[in-house]
Amino acid sequence: MGDDGQQYGGRVAHPTGPPWARTFAEAVWFPAALFLGFLFCFAPALHSPRPHHAHVVVAGRAAARDVDAVLKRTQPGGFDVTAVAHASDARQAVRDRTAVGGFTTGETGGRGARPVLFVAKANGAALEQALTTTFTQLVAAEGSAAHLTVRDVAPTVREDRMGTTLVYFGIAWSVPGYILATTLLRATAFDRRRKLLAILGAAALFGVVGFAVGAGLGYLPHDPVALLVAFLLTTAVATFASGLAPFTRRFFPAVGMTLFIVLSIPTSGGAAPAAMLPTFFQYVHAVIPLGNAVEALRSALYFGGAGMLRPVLVLCAWIAAGIALLGLDARRHRRAALTDGEREIQDPPTDDPSLETPTPTALPAHRHRFGEPEPDLLGTVTDPHGRPVPHALVTVLDPGGRQLVSTRTNAHGEYAATGLPEGYLSVVATLPGKQPAVRQRPLRRGDVVRADFLLRDREDVPGTGLTTAATAGR
Which of 447, 464, 352, 441 lies closest to 394 in space, CA to CA? Predict the structure, then answer.
């Protein structure tokens, strides 16, 4: 049949093909869902950014009333105005991140008083420009001879002139977290604990490398607090996605991409800062991991930690929710195992709801190589003298006797298969002139089951039919 490493006679039983309409629907639904998601998230959020209920503070009650009246008339719904006592309070409100802008008309009654606008470029250059334009027009409409003075109270590093670099690093720490969860679904040799350890290790690695690159190139300030935020972001996305997968199953890619790409990127605060998003997308920004990580990074790197607690708690809540989902899935599997009488399986690992339902497939029976599927079942077929039996047919049956997959042993008498379902499987080895043999094995995700066979000549075994488990193998 072939040499070691060649796949032999792999056959999979498939149900009758669906009608063309069903096939078309199954092929198109996921791209269609993404199309609608991009259409109704990216365009409405970013097509025309402008302030929506952006909070600004104005020094002096009378000045605040005047500014509020003008802004309500010229930009209805654009700004929410609050009065503070002094110009220093207006500046501090921007530094504390309780307002995106602060305004003062100058010293009361002082000749030559200049109106001042306090902004923070770290909140995004687009928001800074919108505030500057709005208050420049407001000062001009008031007929003041003085020009508006704009003071940036939270300037960004020189290499981040638009104040958006943090968003790109956030995407680099967020989207790979989702991809990590999808790839771990196929890591059938990992149980839940190992998958969580893999997530924590990858999150730490991504955080360190990303911060080193950003700080080394001058894109980020040299503040190690960014490492914590990066770690929390990757961990939050990967953990929640891993916990979500067993419950959404074949819909997991659509749900995951909607949460962590379609909704996250336009509401991250990059192309349009949060204060310039429509109200609905501001609410999304307030709960989505990427948006909260960006706010936490801005607070930590440019505002001395002001306003950082809330977004960090949101990231921790996503991690806790992911762990809770993993625990709920473990409990569900444990109850199912006890119901089926499989009491020896105390803690079955999570199911593998990959992008497609795993298909029972024969594998080349060689040592596992990087990038290849990992086997669920493997073994050898030998004769009574310990010599390998090549070309023996090995068939795997489910508990109902339905054939899942069949393959043939290679020149060394070895075989392998993957994509098998959890539960008890019957494995049958046959070869013309030899007495067939059968073995039963319980399979759970994360295990690699061996089923070795010893095939005897028919005349060596009295009677006909399959051998017993005692004579089937070693």
Answer: 441
CA distances from 240 to 178, 288, 317, 327 (A): 9, 12, 10, 12
CA distances from 20 to 17, 146, 228 (A): 9, 72, 51
Q: What is the pTM of this model?
A: 0.72
Distance CA 285, CA 162 (A): 20
3-class DSSP state of 145: coil
Give the dihedral sign, CA 274/277/282/285. negative
List of E strands, 185-336? none
173 phi/psi in degrees, rounded to 5 = -95, -20
Cα separation, 182 vs 100, in Å, equals 38
Nearest 5°: phi and psi at 404? -95, -45
Tokens for 473, please give them.
């193998």
Percent of the chain with pLDDT over 90: 63
Tokens of 462: 């009295």
pLDDT(351) > 60: no
User: What's the pLDDT band for 60 if we cut at 50, 70, 90?
Assistant: very high
Query: What does pLDDT average to over the chain?
Result: 85
Q: Which two tokens stand for residue 49?
A: 């950014």
User: What is the pLDDT, as a whole number, of residue 111?
Assistant: 52
Handedness of CA 339, 344, 346, 349 (dihedral sign): negative
- 120/153 Cα distance (integer angstroms): 5
Q: What is the pLDDT of residue 255?
A: 92
In whole angstroms, what is the distance from residue 5 CA to residue 250 CA?
31
Tell me, rounded to whole angstroms, the distance of Cα 186 from its chain centroid: 15
